[in-house]
Specification:
Blueprint (H helix, E strand, L loop, with lengths): L1 H10 L1 H71 L2 H17 L11 H7 L12 H5 L6 H51 L3 H22 L2 H24 L7 E2 L1 H24 L6 H6 L6 H8 L2 H8 L2 H18 L2 H31 L4 H4 L2 H7 L2 E2 H15 L7 H7 L2 H11 L5
Antiparallel strand pairs: 1-2
């Protein structure tokens, strides 16, 4: 029996060898393909997981940007309200009216609306409104006309200074935090992928400490806009407002569309001035200089924002300064890009539009209270043609400025600005720029 099988095997040896080889090769190929498919599926799962991680971290970073912005907003608002104390001017006008009433004199030339607007419409709700009372008491007495002109310029200046400063702060934080978030994610991914041995982990700990100090210093640079940079914006804005509104009497009547056209003219002047500074190669553009100090003032900034212990640790190693400078150079490159100036202009445009819409809506609501239901259908169209005194519009702008100064989570204007698609596109471009 065994002889039979041996003879059979010897007779068909070649076929058996070939068949065995084919089967073996097919098996190996099958195993190879199966392994490759499994590797591909595993790699695909890892890539999908990594993408989801990136998305989650990106969304979290944008949320952090807004929460950081709201936390810094009171610091930005307080000096602007102190410098542009509209409420004090309003009180001065009210006091003039009260004093004349006590003396039994008529208010010559005020007409219905000017003194009434001062006493009823202009709010004094902001906490910093009384800060300059003592200083104002020592100032030379202004005429009522001078007070109204000052009120006109300063109320509009405060409104646009808030809007421009807040828009810049939003942009700055989105750039700053996305740079740091991308850097942190990339470093974490590299560490996990390389699986460094324990003796190298010590070096990594030292490197992480160097990066942490540089990043903490980097985060301190929002101080410049909050304390110094907004002043440059205020000066430019005030000059532009004086050019457009300087000759307009507060008693002059305007429609909401005419007022919007004037505000738009101011915005265009500011935009041109910002563009001209950006094109001047001899100086930093206004956007950059409002957000970042000159290099010789960087240590001064760090002194204002950090304690002695941090400064000692930071100065102990030149690497900290080098890492900080890398972060600042990247940030400055983004700020000098035309995309940022376009987004700034867009944020301001959207902010102005929402404020004017709110003012118009308030005007319509006031009219609804005095008309019947049949007339309300035509009210909105008629209201666009209705003229009101500039003084009343200034009072409405001041109320809206107080809304801009609120760091409430349900602040519709600020939430809209922070969530514009163009701003998200800028943030995504920064976050995904791993070539830096």
């Amino acid at each position: 029996m065994f002889q039979y099988w041996r003879d059979l095997a010897r007779k068909h040896r070649r076929k058996i060898v070939v068949t065995t080889g084919v089967v073996t090769v097919s098996y190996l190929i099958g195993r190879y393909v199966t392994n490759k498919v499994n590797e591909f599926q595993e790699r695909l799962r890892e890539e999908n997981f990594a993408k989801e991680q990136v998305k989650r971290r990106f969304k979290q970073t944008q949320s952090d940007c807004y929460m950081t912005f709201l936390s810094l907003l009171p610091v930005l608002v307080e000096p602007i309200y102190e410098e542009l104390n509209v409420e004090q001017i309003t009180r001065d006008l009210q006091n003039r009216r009260t004093d004349k009433s006590k003396k039994g004199q008529d208010v010559v030339g005020s007409g219905p609306g000017l003194s009434t607007v001062a006493s009823e419409d202009f709010p004094s709700s902001y906490a910093g409104a009384d800060s300059n009372d003592d200083n104002n008491a020592t100032q030379p007495m202004k005429t009522k006309t001078e007070l109204w002109n000052t009120l006109k310029i300063e109320s509009l200046t405060r409104f646009l200074t808030l809007l421009y400063s807040e828009s810049l702060l939003i942009i700055f934080l989105h750039l700053q935090l996305n740079v740091l978030s991308r850097k942190s994610y990339f470093e974490t991914a590299v560490k996990l992928a390389s699986q460094r041995v324990s003796n190298t982990l010590q070096e990594d700990d030292e490197e992480e400490e160097e990066n942490t100090l540089a990043e903490q210093a980097f985060l301190s640079f929002s101080w410049w806009l909050l304390n110094k940079g907004w002043i440059q914006l205020k000066n430019l804005i005030q000059d532009s407002i004086e050019d457009v509104f300087g000759e307009i009497n507060p008693r002059q009547e305007l429609t909401i569309e005419e007022f919007a056209t004037l505000v738009n003219a101011v915005q265009q002047k500011i935009c041109k001035s910002i563009a001209s500074t950006a094109a001047d190669n001899t100086t930093q553009g206004l956007i950059v200089s409002s957000l970042l100090p000159e290099p010789d003032l960087q240590f001064f900034l760090l002194q204002q924002t950090n304690d002695v212990g941090f400064l000692s640790s930071f100065n102990a190693n030149l690497t900290h300064t080098e890492n900080l400078n890398k972060l600042l150079m990247e940030l400055k490159d983004y700020l000098g890009n035309e995309q940022v100036s376009s987004i700034l202009n867009l944020l301001v445009t959207v902010g102005i539009s929402k404020v004017l819409d709110s003012i118009f809506a308030d005007m319509v609501l006031k009219r609804k209270a005095i008309v019947n239901n049949e007339d309300q259908k035509m009210l909105a169209n008629e209201q666009k043609l209705t003229k009101v005194k500039l003084a009343s519009l200034l009072a409405a702008v001041t109320k809206q400025s107080n809304k801009l100064a609120s760091n409430s989570l349900d602040n519709d204007i600020l939430y809209t600005l922070n969530n514009l698609q163009e701003l998200d596109d800028l943030s995504a471009g920064v976050y995904s720029n791993f070539e830096v």
